[in-house]
Amino acid sequence: MFNMQELSIDSVAHKFNQQAILNGVFINCKVGEVVGLLGRNGSGKSTLLKIIFGSIKADYKYLKLDNELISKGYLSSNISYLPQDNFIPNKLTVAVAIEIFCNTYKKELLKIKFIADNLNKKFREFSGGESRLLEALIIIYSDAEFILLDEPFSQLAPLLVDELKQHIKNLKPIKGFLITDHYYRSILDVSDRIILLHNGCNYQIQNTDDLILHGYLPDYKN
Ligand SMILES: Nc1ncnc2c1ncn2[C@@H]1O[C@H](COP(=O)(O)OP(=O)(O)OP(=O)(O)O)[C@@H](O)[C@H]1O
């Protein structure tokens, strides 16, 4: 039988200072799909991505990659993660950062004009939004099959948001994406499925009415 590549995390429980942040969360993502993760500020979206990547050790979790239990995402070359804050050191040039993260899809990445035009520039020479775009592109085009993106759109002007969405769509046939951002329209647009984190649990979202029902979007009718 064809073995569908899948990243899944089940029964996630985590507390900070006795306060339960995640409680029985389940989420999965297959190659070929974009899963959008929404939730209010403080609902635990970043915590969940950090638990999958391994930078936070959950109180409990059951993390599987292609049906095999793994302890930390970063130990697998098959998972890449864009954290909420900048992570590429300021003194690195774009070319060096690409060397570190990208091999398989390097040719495609170098076709992007903004990358090609700025290969020898250091990260400290870019604006906040420009370096965010570069970091997101480097992670999207990294060798990993599963890509975790924490607020990739947040510092980007609308045209760049559209460009980034297009790159995600281009790579979707060969990768799985788990993505969170408060630009929820962009998340709805780029995602095949939406999961809402609320009160420590995950909810499958079918439409914007569900987002209103769970208190994520304001209900302007009432
Ligand atoms: N290291 C930490 N120590 C204590 N509490 C933490 C820590 N990290 C996060 N928290 C708390 O856990 C909760 C979830 O935080 P998290 O950053 O995962 O939320 P989020 O959904 O990503 O929020 P936002 O949309 O605002 O980025 C918050 O209430 C936060 O205060």
TrEMBL record:
Name listed for the protein in its UniProt record: ABC transporter ATP-binding protein
Source organism superkingdom: Bacteria
Origin species: Pedobacter mendelii
Gene3D superfamilies named among the record's database cross-references: P-loop containing nucleotide triphosphate hydrolases
Stored SMART domains: AAA
Keywords, comma-separated and alphabetical: ATP-binding, Nucleotide-binding, Transport
Domain ABC transporter residue range list: 7-217
Molecular-function GO terms, alphabetical: ATP binding
